Amino acid sequence: MLAKILLYAATFGAAGGSGFLEANRVLLAGEDRRRIRRWLLLCVLAAAILSVVRVLVLAGALGGGLAPSGALLRMVLRAGEGRAAAARLAGLLCMGTALRTERRSILLVVGAMLAASSFAWTGHAWAAPNHDLSITLLVVHLLCIGFWLGALVPLLLIVRGNAGTLAAVTERFGRTAVRVVPLLLLAGALLLACLLGSVRELWSSDYGRLVSLKLAFAAGLLGLAAVNRWRYTPRLRGDPCAIRGLRRSIQAELVLIGAILLVTAAFTTLTGP
Questions:
Q1: Interior CA angle at 251 toward 250 and 252, to 5°?
Q2: Whose CB among 10, 98, 121, 169 lies 3.0–4.6 Å from 46's, allowing a Cys bridge?
Q3: Neighbour count for residue 131 (Cβ, 10 Å)
């Protein structure tokens, strides 16, 4: 679970942050871009290492310990987790290559999408009766999660910078989020409908109760996002208090995202629909 939580955070941080950098490159000052690039390269490196660690831990767990045998390792690599790790590492390689330069690159976006969607290669969606639809919904959900999660740390990195730049970036992010967040919620709701036998499972099964807890954290996250969009963003250009409020709100969002990743790792590892 620990390996999975850290892998989620590093991968979505790298993927979503890369999309954020590419979308706002012309708005960001040179120092802001360099600061974000350094953060993204750290996330890329961490996600690559954790992808390998995750495979080793899974193979070891199958043998009842931490040291995997060659046969178990090959079995994991041939299964969904191996395909997921391969897709993720390919995406991370694309991102790492593109981030080494200051130039715009389609490679950065392609790598980000490949890495963020890599988690769809394994998981409960594959066991659903209509697994083609479930996997498609999961890919959409993952890409939307990456967009939101990955943008928070870059926003936090520029929040102490030029107020005009911060306002322009947050306004653009907010306009995009208004379209992305409903898509995230719709894909998530339809995916749950594919995985759960009935609404009763949300409170009658371990899986459903953990999903319900995740939904509660997500509701809090949506509330903070609404505060950012409608209260702080319009006041950023002339109100230092709004900048401080935005910084605190983003920090609270990161805490809630940590809780969501923890619960997600729990219900995808310890239980199932």
A1: 90
A2: 10
A3: 14
Q: How far is CA 206 from the centre of its chain?
A: 24
Question: How many Å apart are CA 28 and CA 23, to the nearest integer?
Answer: 10
Segment (H or E) for 216: helix 206-227
- Domain membership of residue 206 as a residue range: 2-269
Residue 118 DSSP label? G
pLDDT in tens, 156-211: 999 877 788 888 999 999 889 889 999 999 999 999 888 887 888 888 888 889 99
Q: Return the structure tokens found at 53.
A: 């660690």
Residues 6+ apart with CB under 8 A from 102: 33
Distance of CA 271 to the CA centre of its chain: 21
Number of compact structural domains in the chain: 1
Task: For residue range 36-70, list pLDDT tens digits in order.
Answer: 999 999 999 999 999 999 988 888 888 777 777 78
